[in-house]
Description:
Structural class: alpha+beta
Largest sheet: 5 strands, mixed
Number of domains: 3
Shape: globular
Number of strands: 16
CATH architecture of the largest domain: 2-Layer Sandwich
Number of helices: 15
Low-confidence stretches: none
Strand order of the largest sheet: 8-9-4-10-11
Mean pLDDT: 88
CATH topology of the largest domain: Alpha-Beta Plaits
Helix content: 25-40%
Radius of gyration: 24 Å
Amino acid sequence: MNMPAVCRDCATHFAAPGACPACGRRNIVRHAQLFTLAIAHVDCDAFYASVEKRDRPDLASRPVIVGGGERGVVTAACYIARLHGVASAMPMWRALKLCPDATVIRPDFAKYSAVSRAVRLLMQALTPLVQPLSIDEAVLDLSGTEALHGAPPAGVLARFARQVEREIGVTVSIGLAANRMRAKIAAGRDKPRGFCVLGNEAPALLAADSVGILPGVGPARQRRLASAGILRLADLQSLTDREAKSRLGDDGPSLAKRARLEDSSPVNPQRGTRSISAETTFSANLTQTEDLERELWRLSERLAERLREQRFAAAGVVLKLKTAAFASRTRAVCLPGPTALPDRLFAAASALLAREVDGTAYRLIGIGANPLAAGETADLPDLADPEIPRRVAVQGAMDRLRSRFGTAAIGRGRGFKPGSPP
């Protein structure tokens, strides 16, 4: 049967059974709609851990956990560590109990952002319709690009995956489908180095799968659906809008539609990351304003760096605190103007913090930018704050020094502990 096919090793597209006619290999993707589908979801495999393994080849066959401190949590885990049960957001002590031989590496978000930008540049060479969803995943619309690339989207994506691995040193998994939801589900079905295609057969093919495969249906919602007797996609697919609303509330019809894998949302390059944040868990609980502000300043610098790297500005600031009893407190404020300067972020967050320092012991503090604004709107001249241009210039000079000599080359006094060397 001459089914459309693409060789993942050499990106040749053809329609014939057997091995690739160009290279003779059998690493083939076949699907009846392969040459007509154009929506792709690209997800980097175990991104943070993969970047660390790239930079330390000696760790290639070892379990790697990216995270920090015994009281911290797992930021990411490689697939070897995942086989031991390690998962993101797991307490570090538990992860190390499950996988005591793991190598633990502190996260380097500046490095991960640089790799993310490199991958995204390769995406944007394929199509202008690239919508970033997070630092390690994006959705692309390759409709109408066949004449430009001389290949259908499936062939272009196979070539892209090889290029990312060869030039950047990480791997990606790809989902190809007719809409965004199917593409996202497909990208997660064959990791790592996956290339999964979902066509018209998808609703029937996935009917027996758990409702948990639907984006946005987490464990808590799964439990609520289970209490209503809904465990599989098939349980939702057959519901009329009236039945879905009666059994599941106002969101029921939308959920049933998603279970049928219906999705008309376009790929919008103007919509992507909704918030950017930074947080840290302390080695010992903190209660004093000075100690909390010192940590908050460091996070403000980290957040400002991430904003500038991703070409965003903060239009609002969110403060996150977690008490020793694991109770969360979240406070937010809108800013008079978008910013990517650490001192302006810190000023807004420290004002929120001042109201929460009441003797409570805190184990975690975080700062986030939400909502986001375009980077070019950050820190524009303002008659109400004539010092902004000078602060922008100072920050730019610091960024250049750090870029040349490393992040420890220069810092501000409030980031250092009393008696510690700068």
